[in-house]
Amino acid sequence: MQALTGTQGLTGATLSSYTGYIADVSLIRNIRPTMQLVARFDARPFTYLGAGLQTRTFYSTSIGFRFTPREVPVVLR
């Protein structure tokens, strides 16, 4: 029996090298004591060095409002 590593169990291929990280920037502006405007930008680049030598970067942006019933800010983790 052979142990599967990485995504070998899902794809049947052996990964030579995979690296990735997430970078994000968030801006929060208080509109009222109980309401905030939130904007966020994410970049998720990764590199896969196997068959095909792929490098991809995914981007995401969002903007919205955050409401709290009291003057205590919401902490999302």
Helix coverage percent of residues? under 10%
Distance between the termini: 40 Å
Largest sheet: 4 strands, antiparallel
The outline comes out as rod-shaped
Order of helices and strands: HEEEE
Average the pLDDT over all residues and give the rounded result: 76
Radius of gyration: 20 Å
Strand content: over 45%
The helix tally amounts to 1
Task: Tell how many strands the DSSP assignment holds.
Answer: 4
Sheet/helix structural class? mainly beta
What are the key terms here?
77 residues, mainly beta, 4-stranded antiparallel beta sheet, 5% helix
Characterization of this structure:
Strands 1, 2, 3 and 4 form a four-stranded antiparallel β-sheet that branches. The protein is rod-shaped and about 55 Å long. The model is unreliable at 1-5 (pLDDT under 50). It has a domain at 16-67. With 77 residues, it is mostly beta strands. 5% of the residues lie in helices and 56% in strands.
Chart the SSEs and their pairings.
Blueprint: H1 8-11, E1 17-20, E2 23-32, E3 35-49, E4 54-67
Summarize the structure.
By secondary structure, the protein is mainly β.
